[in-house]
Structure formats: C-alpha cells, structure tokens
User: Fold these one by one.
Assistant:
Number 1:
Amino acid sequence: MQASVPVHRLRAERQGLRGIPEATVARLPLYLRVLSDLADSGVTTVSSEELAAGAGVTSAKVRKDLSQLGSYGTRGVGYEVDCLSEEISRELGVTQHRAVAIVGVGNLGHALAGYGGFTARGFRIAGLFDADPGRCGELVAGMRVRPMDDLEQVVASETVSIGVIATPAGAAQQVCDRLVASGVTSVLNFASTVLAVPAGVDVRKVDLAVELQILSFHETRKSRAAGVSAPVAEAHAVLTGRAVS
Amino acid sequence: MQASVPVHRLRAERQGLRGIPEATVARLPLYLRVLSDLADSGVTTVSSEELAAGAGVTSAKVRKDLSQLGSYGTRGVGYEVDCLSEEISRELGVTQHRAVAIVGVGNLGHALAGYGGFTARGFRIAGLFDADPGRCGELVAGMRVRPMDDLEQVVASETVSIGVIATPAGAAQQVCDRLVASGVTSVLNFASTVLAVPAGVDVRKVDLAVELQILSFHETRKSRAAGVSAPVAEAHAVLTGRAVS
DNA sequence: CGCCATTTGTGAAAGCGTTCACGAGCTCTT
DNA sequence: AAGAGCTCGTGAACGCTTTCACAAATGGCG
C-alpha cells in the first residue's frame, strides 16, 4: 500500500531533458513580476542583485535559477529586462493565454473572479460555475454565472486547462472529478480537502487557515522564547526572512 | 547588502531546544484538520497510515513529524485522536484564540472576512480596516469596517498578533509598517509585493497569480512531453502525485 | 505464558535545495 | 591595447527533507 512507484526514472527524466527544479519554477513568477515592474519603469537591464532584492531572495538563487533556462545574462552587465521577461514567460507558458474555469461563486469565488491579477498575468476566465440555481445568471465581474450543467461543454469548447475550486470542502472532490473528466489537467484547490486525481493531473492547494496556523506557531515560539532567552527570538527572526509559500 | 547575518547559531537553537523543522510545522495544520474530521466521526484512534491518507502525505512523514512533538502514539495501535489533536493544537498555539486584523476590504477582504475557516480554527477577527472613507461603516460579515485611523488602537487593545494585508500592492508596504509599528509580529500578505519587515516579524505570502503560473508551467511541460516522447509524460505523472502546496 | 500480528519511533542513507567561492567574460577607462 | 572593475555562470560544500528499513513495544489469542 506504500505506493513506491518507480521514483527512479523520474529524476533521470527530469534532469535529463529540460529539467527545471520545482523550487526554481516556484520563483520564476516572482522574477517575472519584478521584470514587469522594471519594464514599466523604463529600465532595460537588471543585475541579479537587484532582481533578488525585488523578489525577496538571494542573488545566488537568482543566478542559479536563471541559469537553468539557459544563459540569458551578460557578464559584467546583468540581464536584459525585455529578453529575460519574454524567456520566462515562454518557459511558464503564459504567452498563450490560458483559459481558467472557476467553480463555486461564494465569497471566495467572487473575489477570484474580480481579481485583476489573473487577466493581467496571461489568464482568461472562461467561465464561472455554481451549483446553486439561484445564483446562476447573476452577474459577477462582468460575467454571468453558469449552472454546473454547462461545465463540460465550456471546458471543451474553450479548451480550459486549469480549474479553480472555490466550493465548500464537501463538494470539492466531486467538482474535481467532473473537471478532470472534462479534460482539465491542472487544479487549484481552495477547499480544505485533499483531492484524489489520476496520474497526469496537477493539484495545488491554497489553504488560508493553514497559513494562519503556521504563523500562529511562530507566534507562540516567539512568546516562549521571550520568556526563556533572548537569542532565540533573534535567531528566529533571521530564519523567517524568506516569506515563500 | 547580502544580509548573511549569523546563520550559524540559528540551527544551534532550532535543533537545540524544542526545534521543530519548518517542513513539519507546515504539515501540522493538515493533520489537525484530519483529526478534527475523525473526532467528528466518532473515531478514537488512528494509524499513521490513515492519517497520511487523509492529509495527502506518506505515513513515514507522519510518523517522523509526530515524533518531533514527543511520543504520543502507541505501538501496535496508533494515535489517540483526542490526545493528539490537543497536542498539536497546543504546539501550534491555536488553543488561545488569536486575534487577527484584516486590512483592505475589497473583493478579497470581503472573502476573508466571510471565510468560516478562520473562526473555526481558533482565530478571531478583531477588526476590518479600509482606507476608503466611503467603505467605512459598511457592514461586512456582521462587522463594521473601520477607518485606518483606528488601527493602532484596536491592535493594542485587542492584542492583535496577526495582520492580514488584502490591499492593492501599492499600499501594502505602508500598511505593513503601520501594523508592525502597532505591535503586530506576524503578517499574511495577499498583495503581490515583497514586504520589508524588521527582524522578529514573520511574513507569509499568498499570491494567487503565482499559483496559476506554476500550474501553467506544468501544463506546457505536459503538452511538450506529449509531442516529444511518451515516457517523459509518464514520469511527470508520477512526480505530480503529491499535491502539496 | 508465549507467540504472532501490528504499528510506532528512529537511525542511516539518499535526494534536493541553498549557499559559497571563484573562474570566465564583458565594458570602460586610460 | 592592456588593465581594472564588475557581474554572470557554476562546481563544490553544506544542510534540510524525505525515504528506507528495522528494532522496540503493544495488544490479542491460543
């Protein structure tokens, strides 16, 4: 029952051809945002040090990350903003505007639909769906909420590749199954449930309560430390410089 | 400018006394949720295997994680649900209901205020704040939106330790500074900016656009693999079995 | 009571990710 | 043209995380 499937060949393939480490992939969007801001400011070149400062990481990390994509920097000068930006966008696949379906138009679904960051970063909301018939037809962020019955048709016709689940936890798995069955191969899950998906489908989970609990842990650590010894609190501060998810 | 502050003593302290690894801390909330569900179902004991299935991790991880808190399991039997649940809650510091301040009551702020998961997991919303005077006084999730001027007073009188930033990126740093100056030592940042904070303050960042971009990367990887060679796609599928954040 | 099935707890090993340190290469100045 | 100064790219070292494998401990059963 241990599911120790061939973990061997995995790395062989990953490192072998075009193998970019997960940790690097998670930081590429950060660099991309900084580059966008720089481009808007008219800056044409940027050093790894500056890029690092903007993204909240170390310059060594920036250089190593970018070296994974190839050599797009110039020694003694830095990176060309436009060129690098384009390169990262291409690697992330955000040049082709991907279609996204949002399921569940409650509080969170509303927020997601109205969130400008999605469209600004190369994503297009192909549809909003809700199981509640009373909510269907409602206008949210300029789009009409559709019934769940339309899901399959929209996913297919709009070639939706990413599904966002913003439903209550109880409905999440069922919704996920329908998304996957319709052809969605990536899921962003806001419900506090672990989703079971077939191989080949990616799931990322965002749980707000978890984030708060992690912060809470460090809070209690800080108060404890304060009552015991000062250097602990100090050392802790250093640790928490990185604010990655 | 490199900020290579004493990274030495850090681990010395972390491992030394009550040093729980970050990776473990990030999973404790997952276990806690599963335990809550089990308790609601009337289950009294649980094995590492079951707990692992519920949390979407491996059983080895569960055992190693829980062993960090001490020995709360019984060999041959498993863990006692109530006992373990209490132990984790205590370690995370969610037994004492922490006060949270939410700044920025736009789309996202609304969603956060109305999100039941916060109060259900031991957090209390001490106040909603917005810079827009037109929005102040408005009722959101049964609470009145307060002007930013009230921030310091509320943080102090309600002993708010966690601040949630749901403002536009432009205002985030300024809001963060005010929160920290008022005494907040943990920040959950939804704005797509890197926040500068003094030592001793924790920041966690949640960026929805980043999550989508990471998924987009894997999508392009999948399509590329499909067009190039089959085994790559297969290996990738194995990789993505884990759906952790 | 002794054995067997079960499951925890944990060293040891392997895998990743980060940091360090420095050579390589570019630009500019003299 | 040569040297100085800067910054990228990268192998090597280090530390954290995960995985593996198994001894230790428990409960049940004959």
Number 2:
Amino acid sequence: MEASRPRGRPRTFDRQQALQVATELFWRYGYDGTSIADLTQMMGVTPPTLYAAFGSKEQLYREALLDYIRSNGVLVERVVHNGEPIYSLIANYLYRSAEAYTDPAHPPGCMLQLAALTCAAENEAAHKTGVELRQEAFQLLVASLEWAKEREELPSETNVFALARMFMALLQGMSIQAVDGASTEELKEMVTAALAAWPGKRPNETQNTIHHRDTEF
Amino acid sequence: MEASRPRGRPRTFDRQQALQVATELFWRYGYDGTSIADLTQMMGVTPPTLYAAFGSKEQLYREALLDYIRSNGVLVERVVHNGEPIYSLIANYLYRSAEAYTDPAHPPGCMLQLAALTCAAENEAAHKTGVELRQEAFQLLVASLEWAKEREELPSETNVFALARMFMALLQGMSIQAVDGASTEELKEMVTAALAAWPGKRPNETQNTIHHRDTEF
DNA sequence: AAATTTTTATAGCGATCACTATTAAATACA
DNA sequence: TGTATTTAATAGTGATCGCTATAAAAATTT
C-alpha cells in the first residue's frame, strides 16, 4: 500500500523528530531559556522552515508539551481500562516517576510540572499553557480517586481533592529534587514515606524493590 | 549619634528597597524572564547605577535570593532556639507556608523552590545558585529532624532523609500549585492529608483552623 | 512541457538583550 | 578653594531576540 504523496515539494526533515528535539530543549531550559536559534540548530532546519511547520515559538511550545503529556501521561488510561486498584496504581506510578525523573537519557523531572512556572511578562501565553495543562492533570487525578471512592477502595470520608493535591505535590517535589540532583533511590524512599499518608487500609502493599521493564505500563 | 557620611556623592536611592524590588521581579518572572530594563525601570535607577550597586545581573539575583531566604527562612532558628517540638514546628510551618504562598501581596509560591529550575544554558550560574541554596535548606531540614530523633520525638527507625524530602516536596508542590491558582484553604487541606504520614504518634495535633498573627513566628 | 503547490534557504527586519565608556554632579577632605 | 572620591545620567556598544520578505527548488497535476 503506497500512500499517495501530497502535491508540493516533500519535507526533508521528520516533523515528529523535530518536535521531540523541541520538547527536550524546552524541558531542560524552559520557554524563556530556549531560543529560536537553539531550536533550529538542534532540529537541523532554518527559521522559515520551523515557522512554516509549527507557526510560532508559543505554538511549538504548546505542541511539544502536549506531545510530552500524550507520551508520558498514562495514569488515567490505566485506571479506566485496566480497572487496576487505585492504591497499587498510584504507588506504582509514583515509584516509576522516581525512575523516569532521574533517567539521564532525558532532562530531569517532569516537563509538565516544571513548565513555564515563571516566565517573562510578554510570554504569559506560555505560562497559561503550563497552568492549564497542570490543572487538567489534577482534575484527572481527582476523578480517578473519586471513582475509586465509589468502588469503595477509599473510606467514604476521604477528601479526594486534598489527596490528589498531595500526590501532585509529590510529583512536583520529585521534579524539583531531580533537577537538584536527587537519585532514583532517594526519591523512592520519599515516596515510601509519603505513602504512609494513604487513608484507610492499603491492599497489596507495593514495594519499591519491585522493578518494572521500561516498556511496561 | 550621627553616622559620619562617606566621602563621595551620596546615594539617591535605597539599596535595600531596590533589592526587594529585584526580589519580587525575579520571584514572579524568573531569572531569564526579568530583564535589566525591567529592573532599572521598577527600581527607578539607570543601568550604570544598578551595575555600580550590585555588580551584575547574576550577582543581583544571588543577593536577592539570599535576602529572601534571610527574611523568610526561619524554621531552623526556631527549632534551635525555642526547643519547639518538631511536629508542631513543622506542621505550623507548613500551614503558615500555605498562607504565605497564596498571599496576594507578593508573587505566588516560594521564591527559593521556584528559583531558576530551568534557564538558558548561558545562565547556568543562576541555575547553580538555586540548586545550591535549595540543597542547603534541605540539609537544615534534615538536621532539625535528626536532632528531634535524638530527643526521641521520632521513632528510632525513622528515615529522616526521606521524611525531609517529603516535607520539601510539600513546600515545592504548594509553590507550584500556588502559581496555578490554588487557594490557601486548598493548600491547608493538602497539608492535613500529608501530615497523616507522620511517623509514630503525633503530640499536640495541630489544627489548620488555628490562625496565627502575621507578626508572630 | 507548462502550471500549480509546497518546502526550502538566503538574508535581514526592527526590537531588545546585558552591559559600559564617558562625563557631569555632589559630597568630604586638604 | 581646590582635590579626591563616589554616584549620577547620557548615550550608546555589539550580540542576540523572535520573526519574515523574497525567491529558488522539488514535487504533482494538467
């Protein structure tokens, strides 16, 4: 099956690959800290090519962040489709985040949690993008805890908003501490300490010594 | 008692006040997001005056951050000098941080926790300043928990490093969530949920309904 | 082959970046 | 009253910022 080519001159670069290059740069250096010159140089394209493909620096940032989330934010899909118990799901997610945030193969921490926390006043659009996408992630976490409460996996008096904020804070704190050089094991020990705050009884206590394949989950 | 004036032309601006202006700008907009033009305009001085007084943008940033910490980081002084029980000290500090991070009188969150998490590669010195000062704060938190353990306020098997990381993560998560628009009450509820992870028995359970004067502590 | 469509690179736009050479102004000291 | 000392503003420096006008190149369609 040969896909019919579009009409004009064909692309000489991989758009998705260029997007991942942009993601890594924005992730490590932030919105203000990444220049168009940085992007074009690492992508191997010239400025007009970048603008033809992505519109503007702000649009490229948003698309890069959305692509990062699509590739890495799998928590809710799992709770919905697998029906996994909420405790093991969240505990495993936290331990796996401790590994991912310290993986030297990419910048430290979670790109979403670090996205445009501070930036120049004239780049408020990028700031709002970060705020908006973090709020969406928070709402999904709240929803997954709500569903677990309906399934009676959490005590009926549980404050799911407060609990969701606490797990968000753990992911955010792990991101900053990964930037500051914390090791995988140090972050995992913190997760273990924090999971003591789980309300009610914890079914199937998950150990941080359980290691998973990178391709799993 | 009249302080003898120095020899040359006297200053026409308040250096400490200018430093606080710089602190607010760096706090809200970050290192990359704050320009010399922003600083000079808000300080009411010209660029040569700023450089004569503070050396460089990097030195001004470091000085502003150190001044912020000196003004706001009072945790350890309290545990050392007052001999306050560690649980009430940390619980109160967390609840008060929830108030401070959402105070509309200044930028949201903690300037230290948000300091230069990401910035341009050529500004690595500012990034290192942030990392270094957060690591110092973490070591002080570890030390205060260690002393509490020696005073037998914590179980002997307590992992104080993991516990210190958890409280750092709460402060860091509260900072990011304050940036994202969380309310004082939402952050306090999160603190309450997280304090359930406190090891052993908690003496004198602190309520988030206890309100303190702004001038206290 | 000619026309149409799309992507490409060259070259450079005006604005802003962090920073400074120069000189005038304002004080204390001799 | 000079001289030394320090701070002040004027007026810029070269470099980089995000972005684009223009036109050549490479494909399909007619």
Number 3:
Amino acid sequence: MADILEFLGENPYRIRAYRRVANLITELPEDVEKAFFTKKLHRMSGIGESTLLKIEEFLKTGTVKKYEELRKMVPESLLELLDAPGVGPKTLKIAYEKLGIRTKEEFINALKEGKFNKIRGFGPAKAVKILRGIEIWEKSKERIHLVEAYFMAQEVLEYMKKVKHLIEDVSIAGSLRRRKETIGDIDLLISAKKENWLKIHEHFTKFPGSIEVLAKGETKSSIILESGRQVDLRTVEPSSWGAALQYFTGSKQHNIRIRDIAKEKGLKINEYGVFKADTEEKLGGKTEEEVYNLLGMQWIPPEIREDWGEIELALENKIPRLVEYGDIKGDLHMHTTWSDGVNTLEEMVETAYRLGYQYIVIGDHSQSARVANGLTPDRYRQQWKEIERLNKEYNPKGFYILKGAEVDILPDGSLDLPDDFLRQFDFIVASVHSRFEQDNTERIIRAIENPYVNMIGHPTGKQYGYREGYPVDIKKIIEIARETGTALELNTQRMDLSPENIRMCMEEGAYIGIVTDAHSARQLTLMHLGVGLARRGWATPDKVINTFDLDKLKEFVYSKRKKFAKA
DNA sequence: GCCGTTTTCGGCCCGACTGTTTTCAGTCG
C-alpha cells in the first residue's frame, strides 16, 4: 500500500507510517492474529486506530478494501520498478501520466527511444543512468546470503588495507553489521583526516573486482562488483566516528526513531555528531555509546536495531545482555573427511583449537546418509580411536574433542543408530534429511523424546537461498524441547533457526546451540556470524548451550539421560 | 497515518551525489 501511495504522490509521512507498520508486523515473533487478540498490537507505538481497523478487517475477511481499491489505480508491473536504482515515484508518475506507460517493458523502451528527453529536467544522461540501473537490478534482484556478503566484504577490506596509512579506523556498517540473514549491498565506513579522503575514494573506486563506479565524491562513493553487488564507502573525521557508525548501520526505521527522540529532546543528530538543535553546539559523536547516551538511552547492539521495540527498552536501560562471541566455548556440529567434510579430523581439530575453544563435537553423518558417506557403527568406533589419540595430545592444552554424530531421523521418527550405541557418544545431534514435503512435527518430536538426543539439527529444514523448510509446527517443537532438556540448533550456514524462531525459544525458555555445521576448516571461522544471528533473535548466554563450559555441557547431556533413559 | 510532560492540530530525520540546472528536484541510504 505504501508503494502505491508513493506512486500516487500521497503525503510522504502517511507513507512512512504505513512502512513502519509493515516493518513492525513482519518481524513480530508471533502470529499477527494472536498479537491482535492479546492487544499487543494496540500497545505498539506506530500502530494506530486506522491500522487496527484494517488488520481486524483483514483477519475477518481475508482482505482490506482500501488495498483492493488502491491496487486498481496503478499497474503492478510498473510498481515493481520502484526497486530499481535510480527509479523513484516521481519518475514513474511522469511515465504513467505524460507518456501513458503501463508496463515495465514500455518503460524501458521509452527510455531507449529517448521519449523522456522532451520532459523538463530529464536529459539523456539520466535515461542512460536509469537503464543501467535497471540492468544491474535485474542481475542482482535477489539479496545475498550473509556468509557470501561477509566474504565479499572481507575482500574489499583486504584491498583497502593497502592504504591503511591514510586510515584511522574502518568498519563494516549497514545490514551486514546488523548480521541480517540476507544482504542487499555492502556498506563500509572509514574515519580519516579530511586531507586523505579523496585519496581513499580514489583507491576504493579502483578496486579490481569492480565493474562500474556509480558515484565518487569526497565523502561518499559507490562501486558495483562483478556479482552485481553494490559497495558503498563513506569517509568521516575520527571525531564523528561513533555518530557515523550509528548512522550507517541503520536500520533506516531505527534511525528515523532515533532522530525523532533527539528532536523531542531538543537535539539534532546526523552522521557527524549530536548537536543542540538551537545553537548547533556539538555535544559528542566520537563513539556510538556516546551518541546513545546523549539521547538518554543505553547502547543498542547493532543486530537488534530494527525498531522492533529495542528503543523503548534502551530508554529504560532494559536491553538484555545478549550472547557474545567471547561467551562461546565450543562448536557443536562439524564434519570431517570421515563423511562429507573436505578437511581431515586432525585439520578440523587444530583449526578449532586455534580459535580458542575449550571443546568441539565431531558430528559426522550416520549410515543412512549415503550421499554424504555416512558412518556405520564400525566406522564410528574407528573414528573414536583417532579422537582418543588426538585427545591425548590436546587435553593437556585444555582442549577436548567430544565424540558425536549427526544422526538421521528416519521417516518414522526413529533414529539411524540404536540406543545402546548412541549412549556411547558424548553428544548427539539428530536431523531430518529426507521427506521434506511431509509434515515433520511428530517425527521430530519422537526424536526429541529419545534420551540420547541432545540437539535437533536445523529444526525447520530451511536452507537460505536453496530450500523452503518442511512443514513443521516449530512452536510445538520448542515446547517439547524445553520440557525434555533438548537444544535446538542455530545453524549458521543454513540460517535455521530464524530470528523469529529464536525469540520464540527465548520467550519459552528453550535452549539453543549455535553451530557452524562446518564442512571445511575455513567454515569453522563463521561462528561469529552465527552469534550475530542469535543476537538478532535476542538470545541470552544462559540459553545457549555452547556458552557452557565442558562440565556444564556434560551435565546438560547427563541430566536428560538420567531423567528419561531406561535403567 | 501517528502522536503529544510545549501541542488533540500541526508537525513528522538528515545529508550526499547526480543531472540539469543557474538554485534545485529526484533519488538514495
């Protein structure tokens, strides 16, 4: 509705209000229906009388009359173009009203044929720019996976190190810093002395992987990578570092609210600092903490800056202490060349040891995972010998290798290995790898009820960018997991669980485990991204089992066995 | 459309870059 209103040239603040509502309800940890009937929606700032009526209408009739009316007022294929860079509502309106354009194709043709040229303020260079924008947009419509974006950003950062003598500080900003599951473009921020800015942008726009320079200025420039991804660079003075980092990290909705609050307090905030609104006197901006504190709130972790209620909590100093990378004592799920990993057991162990962990769980696939070279009980026993040998070497250094497995949950909910064998492992992950079309709720619940299963691998079956999850009642699974003392896996690469799922776990009091599911030594280093995803779901360290030290983790395993295993 | 320890009406975040302009509109983040 906001898109259509924008096209129609409606009051921009009304449009903003619609967008805010959309943002709030998409990220709700529960059903809109439930939030409506428990009156949670009624209490949310940004949702007013008129929105509540529309939601009620939608819940009763399945549609909203105003939306149906609006839809008739603009061709859908034209509206889609709002997402293309360089195309905004004003341009579309000109196309629609003055040139009679009704579809995306007509729009592109009109640009190519120079039909826009006769319109005031619309020269040929603009047409070229928009056409190029549409081309890039078509190529990179899909947002990319966090992990992929992270590696791209690392390449650019590596390249920028060549001019590090010009730079004070550098950071990733934007949705990548917020650890959003998917990334549209990559934002970098650099602080440096003003006389160096131009040189920094010169260097940046010559990045070898760049195929196009979209903009180049003294404070801001943008390039397009071969993949079609855009990278934006901003430069600021060191004294503005915190304000700029806060600003360029977003989200947009979060920042709008932050500036609202600044205004209420007679302050002005921009990327250069916090100022008194009347006298323009600068009050601060060197660090992010300073910026938030000047607004009367505590620092907000980037991962939760989405205007989902974090601002209200920060004003009351009530943001929970979220799990941090430094809390993580080990990785609970990884593969080696024994099954479908590319690095040997020894290589995985050495890499994990260097990461500073206290323990890891080796979790190679079980026998029925044939394509993944799953292990039979005999091969697990052989692997244990190697693990025992390595433990003799590493235990004196304070590092422990736990015998584990990623056991298949068979279609009937039974496990791929018998109980009397499972009990000989230190830690068991159980996962569904087949029959993705059926409802898997009962199947998983049966696996959770097994006393030797400590964690359910990728519980919803979702694999970002590849596969929708299987049908499953995640709420029910979370409940049973909590009752039985079983953790649910947050799989960094698959991004299963979602932030909404994690919030549900936290609200229910269920445990999660953050894992890399590494199939190579390099992937072991992705843990900090997994921690970021957990933080997006407001995960606290007490509910993350791999923040436990080894003794506590063992206690977690044994207390379930004690409670449920037959004598 | 939403909101209020100045306001129930009149405001609503802020700045950079581009192209087409002689002072600014459109778009973007």
